[in-house]
Amino acid sequence: MSQKTSVTEFKPLAKPVVGKTSYGDFTWGDAKNFVLFAGPDIIEDDGMVMETGQEIQRITQRLGIPWILKCSFDKANRQSSASFRGPGMKQALKSLDAIKSKIGAPLLTDVHETWQVESTAEVADVLQIPAFLSRQTDLMLEAAKTGKVIHIKKGQFLAPWDMKSIANKAVQAGNSNLLLCERGTTFGYNRLINDMTGLVEMRRLGFPVVMDCTHSTQLPGATGDSSGGRGDMVWALARAAMAVGVDGIFVETHPRPEEALCDGPTSLPLRNLETFLKSLQRIFQTHFE
Question: pTM above the 0.85 mark?
Answer without folding.
Answer: yes
